Amino acid sequence: MKLQSVRSAVRQTAANFFREVKGEWKAFLAVTAGVTIQAMAVVLFVLPNRFPDLGVSGIAVLSNYVFGISPAWVILISNALLMAWAWKELSPRFVLWTAWAVVLFSLLLKAFEFVPVPLIGDKFMAAMVSGVIRGLGAGIVFRVGGSTGGLDIPGMALRKRYGIEMGQFSIYINLGILVLSFFVIGLEAAIYGAVGLYVFGIVLDNTTRAFDRRKQALIITNIPDEVSAYINLTLRRGVTRLDGIGGYSKQPRPVLITLLEPRQAISLKRFLAENDPNAFMSMTDAAEVLGKGFKSWKSL
User: Fold this and answer.
1) For residue range 108-122, what is the model confidence (pLDDT) as tens digits?
2) What is the pTM of this model?
3) CATH code for 214-299?
4) For tag attachment on the chain, is the N or C end more exposed, with fewer CB atoms within 10 Å?
5) How do the domains of the chain map onto residue ranges?
């Protein structure tokens, strides 16, 4: 009975995954590309230079340095245990995309072991390039609501159940891993690795922000109907019209609010400059926009 239950669960999970891929093929391509980039960075820069790493990947790298165990097996087994623990706490979508990322990452690490790797003599350059490439790959994955597993799994589960911040959780765990790395690989390699991880964090943050960055425009104009039509029909964006009152004149003032991509914001500025030079417009950065035409709610 237990074997049949396991087979049934595996078949159901596979069916859900293929259904998810069919409905979100762009997310599938993004996760696949991002994970591939990260695996290449680990094989080309981290392992040959004996740099430390963070999270489950950090434990896997240390296991490779000390015991010669392939990082692929440590990552796969550790993430399987973590996902089994957090299965009831996290959304099925998050678990499915994380499972795909973990399996693919482990397979690629194993496959790349048989590929000749050129050793870069300049360790500082290797650390910098590693951080840039891995940050870009992780940003692509996180952009579509995916995860590369590891500490993301218990971090998400603990935040959902107990309200523990992922940042605090990650700091304590990763600090312990870096301390262990110091005793295994020495001070010099630990410093180079820390530089690469710092660059990784910067690139990751900027990558995710760059994908989500939008412009929020607040417009007061004498031709609100024409401006609304331009935003709807030419820029193909939604616009909300509010009824305002001038603080000094006490006259009705229609107020338009819209969210645009940066290039569309430039087009709107040109339209207002040509058609209503007396218009007032305030433009601010919107860090994240969720909804139709922008980031999907499914990515959460």
Assistant:
1) 888 887 877 777 778
2) 0.65
3) 3.30.70.120
4) N
5) 2-211, 214-299
